[in-house]
Amino acid sequence: MTMMRGSGKSTLLSLRDVSVSYESRRGPVLALEHFNLEVQPSSFVSVLGPSGCGKSTLVKLVSGLLKPTTGTVCFDGKPASGARDDVGVAFQQAALLPWKTAIENVLLPIRVTGQSVQAALPRAEALLDLVGLRAFRDRYPFELSGGMQQRVAVARSLIRDPSILVMDEPFAALDAMTRENLMIELQRIWQEMRPSVLFITHSIQEAVFLSDRVIVMSGRPGRVIEDVVIDLPRPRDQHTLGSARFAELSAQLREIFDRTGQT
Amino acid sequence: MTTFAYVAGDFLRRLLPVVLLVAVWWVLVWALDVPSRLMPSPPEVGQRIYDGLIVTGDLWPHLWATVKATLLGFAAGGGLAIVVGSLLAMSRPLELLTYPIVVLIQSVPKVSVAPLILLWAGFDIRSTVILVALICFFPIFVGTFVGVRSAPSVLLDLFSTMKAGRFATFLHCNLPYAAGSIFAGMEVGWGFALVGCVVMEFVTGVSGAGFLIQNSANNLDAQTAVASMVLLGVMGFIGGALMQQAKRRLVFWEGKGRHG
Description:
The structure holds two protein chains of two kinds. Chain A has helices at 3-6, 55-62, 102-106, 108-112, 117-130, 146-158, 176-193, 204-210, 238-242, 244-259, and strands at 13-24, 27-39, 44-48, 70-75, 78-79, 87-90, 164-168, 196-201, 213-217, 224-229. Chain A has ten helices and ten strands. Chain A is of the alpha/beta class. Chain A is globular and about 50 Å long. Chain A has two domains: 9-86 and 164-259, P-loop containing nucleotide triphosphate hydrolases (Rossmann fold), CATH 3.40.50.300; 97-161, no CATH class. In chain A, the strands form two sheets. Chain A has a six-stranded mixed beta sheet, sandwiched between helices. Chain B folds into two domains: 1-33; 45-250, MetI-like (MetI-like fold). In chain B, 81% of the residues lie in helices and 0% in strands. Chain B has ten helices and no strands. Chains A and B meet through helix 4 and helix 6 of A and helix 7 and helix 8 of B.
């Protein structure tokens, strides 16, 4: 498979034979085992798995919060060490600072690393525009709805123009209507910005709608059990959700879950 | 205007129990026929305060001495408490090394050190400032320590993924999160500070509200003693109210909606 590079399709992020174990009160726990994953530039990859399959461990690995026990995590073919400037992260909670306005929260990654806030301001404004919050620029998080807060968090994760965006079930804490709207909006944003996205979710609908590829994980210890290519045409919108191909792919993923005895 | 109405309403709500207390005091002094040299009635105390502040002005130097020493000590002790509390909360090794010492110092009643402080710093304002600083240190230290440690782990994770340094994380995440808790410590600390100040003025016997209380009680002048007590109470109240106002402005987000 080393020919991948030669064929012009370089790999942005690769996890090779990664295992992660950690100590708990009840002895060592194996969170990930022989985990392999490759993400190409500008591709949207979802990781779908049951709760407790080591998805958050995966997020921590890629965002540099955690080192693998064995195996390697590489960016552009080079082994990763620690947190990176070119990785944007969005968590399940919006994790906004309550004393900062929307625009200040978007600019936070710039400010805390001592870069010029002034220079980044136009970009921050454009990003707020992109997530549809231009009018809420100077509002505080407690004045925004849960969905709006998550949009601010998405804009913040994009401020440093990351080559890869890691999203850890970013819509899980929202109500169904808001989730669907944000899902459609995220695919629009992705079409405009085209970062690579590693999208962690336990929603089949989200995974199928958003992704180029869906990685299905087993329960703990987390392993890749299936790599499904989603060939729905882009741009996708509400109509995609009702299409026959969408239903077919969803059923296929559902079947993989049932086959492996997971819920 | 709404802010003014709110503050005024808040003030009246706080004032009502005080009015009741004064009424009970008045009734008791009148019903039990307590002589004024032991316990004056509210109007007598009011008269003394009026005279002391406006007619003769003899209370001012003492009040000023107390305010000055308390403010200086509070600023020094509080400032140190915020710095030390932050350092210990941000550094595990430093915490393990020094926390036991801080607790040990706290276990000694600070007032018992007063004569020693006098021995070291002499009969002037310096002794008072030192005791005040020592006595208001702990509540503010604990408020800071607990507050800095209370930052949500998802935010700390976020700061690590952004490659924020430890100081940037402290400045932009831990410290603002701790603000409410620091203010709570400061409110307690301000009450403590006044106690420390009065005790030291008892001991030094040079000037201040504490000195005035002791001196006038010795001279069977309960009127002046109670008047000084009331003024000390006013000082405590004003300090607390100012801090609550500052807290409301600075920690404006607390208790508002969801914080995700």
